[in-house]
Every structure is written in structure tokens, then in C-alpha cells.
Design a protein that fits this description.
By secondary structure, the protein is α+β, with helices and mostly antiparallel strands. It contains 9 helices and 4 strands; from the N terminus they run βαββαβααααααα. The protein folds into 3 domains: 61 residues, Alpha-Beta Plaits (2-Layer Sandwich), CATH 3.30.70; 54 residues, no CATH class; 53 residues, Arc Repressor Mutant, subunit A (Orthogonal Bundle), CATH 1.10.10. It is globular, with a radius of gyration of 21 Å. The N and C termini lie far apart (72 Å). It comes from Hymenobacter setariae.
């Protein structure tokens, strides 16, 4: 069955969008719009998703054929937007309200589909995303843990610290030490 819309897994950044666009062009297709999780092709170049799957798989992507998998990937993409919403909105929506609004369906339905497909709850997935964002922010060394906690809407730096340890198995301090190479002072060299 040929289609003009591909649902693609593992697209997480603008470079992924560019990579998928380039792969499709190189394979002779005419993408008209490539966004996170989707590629729309020109009506003149429809594709059988099963035929293009090996090409995308080589580059670390995968074609989603199942509706539940497609919805799960869309939820993951919207959760990335939600993290930005948390950071910038004066009074951010709850995760459930944000998703229900974005998908125009109940959070309960979204949660059931996501849990069944991803083998993980939306809440746990969001926590993992937040902790990855925390790692990124810590690696820059520009913000304190309290500032990071505030930006990601944690109730306190301690709450973030506890969740960080729970997810990563190490403390924030241990993580920071890993980021800094061992160096000797000049007077200790000789």
C-alpha cells in the first residue's frame, strides 16, 4: 500500500529532520514537508512504507506502521514541546491538560495507548526527559541546581536531586565530578 505520509520513529532533533529529508531525496522521493516524526511526500512519489523502512533503519530511524506506535511517537514529540512550555509559561498547564488539549482527546486514552506501546507511563517518560535536560544543563555549568529545578518546575532543588539519583543511580555531585577531567595544578607538575 503506497502512501504520501510516513510516520517515522526516533526523530528527535532538527538534524534528524535533515537526515530523513536527505535520505528520501537520495532514494528518489520528493519530500514536501519533513517534521519530527513525519515525512510528507509529493503526490507524484508515493512510497510503500515497508520498502523505505530498511533505508531509514540503516540511519537509526524506523517506519511506524501501527496507529498506536504512531500516536506514541506523536506524544513523545509533544512532550518535548511541553518541556519548553514548562520553562516559558508563567502558569504552565499540567501534563495531562497539555496533552489532552493538543490531541483533543482524553488523557486517559493517551496514557493507555502510550503505556501499552512504550511499556512505560507518560509520567515516567517525562521524568526521564527532564533528567536528560538536567544533565544537559549541568554540563554547561551555567546554572545552579536550584535554578535548574525552578526552570523545570520542580518544587525544590532537593526534589530534583532525589529524582536525579532515583533515575540515574548517582547524585548530582557525582555527575558533576564526572564532567570535570582530573587536572593537576602547574606547581604539582614537577
Amino acid at each position: 500500500m503506497k502512501t504520501n505520509l510516513l510516520h517515522i520513529k526516533n526523530m528527535v532533533c532538527p538534524r534528524c529532520v535533515e537526515a530523513v529529508q536527505n535520505l528520501l531525496v537520495k532514494a528518489g522521493y520528493e519530500p514536501t514537508a519533513v517534521t519530527l516524526g513525519q515525512a510528507r511526500l509529493s503526490p507524484s512519489t508515493p512510497v510503500d512504507p515497508k520498502a523505505v523502512a530498511p533505508l531509514l533503519r540503516e540511519a537509526g530511524f524506523d517506519v511506524l506502521l501501527d496507529r498506536a506506535e504512531q500516536l506514541t511517537e506523536q506524544i513523545k514529540t509533544v512532550l518535548q514541546e511541553y518541556l519548553e512550555h514548562l520553562r516559558t509559561a508563567p502558569a504552565p498547564l499540567t501534563t495531562s491538560a497539555f496533552l489532552a488539549d493538543r490531541f483533543a482527546t482524553t488523557y486517559s486514552h493517551l496514557s493507555k495507548v502510550f503505556s501499552r506501546t512504550a511499556n512505560l507511563t507518560i509520567e515516567k517518560y517525562l521524568i526521564r526527559m527532564k533528567i536528560e535536560r538536567v544533565k544537559e544543563m549541568l554540563s554547561y555549568g551555567e546554572m545552579t541546581l536550584v535554578q535548574i529545578a525552578d526552570q523545570l518546575r520542580y518544587s525544590s532543588g532537593q526534589h530534583l536531586s532525589n529524582q536525579f539519583r532515583q533515575v540515574t543511580g548517582r547524585s548530582v555531585s557525582e555527575f558533576r565530578r564526572m564532567l570535570q577531567p582530573d587536572r593537576l595544578s602547574l606547581d604539582a607538575l614537577g
